[in-house]
Description:
Chain A is an alpha/beta fold. Chain A has ten helices and ten strands.
Amino acid sequence: MNPTHTIEVRALNTCFGTTVVHRDVNLSVRQGEIFALVGGSGCGKSTLLREILMLERPLSGSIKVFGHEVIGLSDAAALPLRRRWGMAFERGALFSALTVAENVAMVLKEHTHLRPRLIAEVVALKIALVGLPADAGAKYPNALSGGMRKRAALARALALDPELVLLDEPTAGLDPLSATGIDALIRQLSDTLGITIMMVTHDLDLLWHSADRVAVLGDAHILGIGTMTELADLTHPIIRDYFYGPRGRGAMAQGTQEGTWNPG
Amino acid sequence: MSTRLDALATEIRPGTAPGDLYCAGIWRLHAATQIEAQINAHLKNLVAPTGAWQIDASAISALDTTGACLLQGLRRALSRKGHEARIIGLQAPFAILLDQVAAHLAHPIPSLRAPGLLARLGQRTWTSGQGVLGLLAFVGESAAALLRTLRQPHRLRWRPILYNLQTAGVAALPITGLLAFLLGIVIAYQGAEQLSRVGANIYIADLIGLSMVRELAPMITAIIIAGRSGSAYAAQIGTMKVTEEIDALRTIGIDPFELLVLPKLIALMIALPLLTVYTDIMGIFGGMVMASSQLDVSFSTFIERLDHAVSLTSFLIGIGKAPVFAAIIALVGCYQGFQVNGSAESVGRQTTASVVQAIFLVIVTDAMFSVAFSWLKL
């Protein structure tokens, strides 16, 4: 176990019935980096994320987070780990009976003994940090637009100042402007707070601009892993289709031209 | 354990010059309570400097947003004591974080407090009033949709009607039958003791027959169906509202009333009278079983007596109430479904409301029927 690896997945196998989702998947996420997992729809990206979060159990293999094996961990043993990470689900998964501020405050009330005054301050801070207007805190999730809901979900994921944040499709379903905002936000969180970020995404712009390293999942395997420029040189047909399709070319042209991606 | 170590590592103490404050250690969320306590302790007995306050933060080894929040709070608290407070020596990445936090915290913080008693009372009254008006509007809208459809019968959707007949009617047979049978047994058992005392055994048929056919069978069936199907309607429509399926129907050009409400209403108005006939039979059968075992009234004597005791009018009155109850259950269930406002909690709330209101209205309506029938001397 490498101490600088926040997540380490080894020899992971997953099956749903007779469908093989992962066959001998290996990957590691380094501390402090922005790691992206890409691949076609239904190739098991979200499943891998859910397995890391202990929401689903793989058939065999090992997943270590912060150096602790998470497969088969009891709820009591998992609690300290769960306080150290935050997850933003694809559709937000905000508690619909609570306002945005209460959603964020709930995590703090559950896991800390802060005074209500400080909790209110921290909650307002997180809401501002993810770029939501101050009055969004008093709104219920169903009164928010899709982009705002994603930001609110991120605010809840950040509530405990986690060391690791997992994001499922942070930009899916957003307009380009909001997506660019999320792009910048992820980069900024990683820079200022030193958070390790692992995300599942289809967004090629996000990959070129934000991701330090990218893993491509396809045919139940990891087809390639590395920086975007390294991946772009690989010749596997799925990777080529992915990155050299019409959308991929556009994003790559922009990404290389601006030179803003970080070849870790 | 780590919390305690961090708390020890976190330190705030006065510096060498007056107005100097030295901060060190790990300023993170899990140590926040201790940090806050230390800050408050120091704020009380600090001696104000002649110039600016100076916070030496060079020894802060870790800082997260909560820590930054506290540090900014300390700076503000000192600034309120007359002079400006400067933070020096903070590591570069932490300084960026602190600047961001300070910028965000400059806005007033909205309070998380719930509205007061009076506001809640007002809100509750307003929603109750709205609810009554809404239900009336819903009944009107349903009636309009029904008339519209009846004028163009080809628009009636038979498949959902038949499906609803199956789920609300046929599938309810076992439970309504069993409960009516048990109810018949209970009433016969209670009546048997009184009647045998005066030797009026045969009147058990009058007791069971009339009470079942006129009152109990329609009522018990309606109550079971309100719990079984009314709640299902509310939950189904409510969930469809949360997932925007209702909006999708509207955009496709399908009237949700036509697809969701009318088939349920029509199916239930057909199913409930039929179920009531069935519960009549099962309830009387239960009474018969009890009469033959406790009062020596044979099945054939019982049925012969029943023929005299229960008039056709009584039977029709009982059956005639069923479609009205059906309309109440279906309309209240669907209305509450449409009242769901997008949260999972409200699906549960409206489903409960649908059952409570439907049963309440069924019983009130039944009482009004009784009064009306006694006026009409039926």
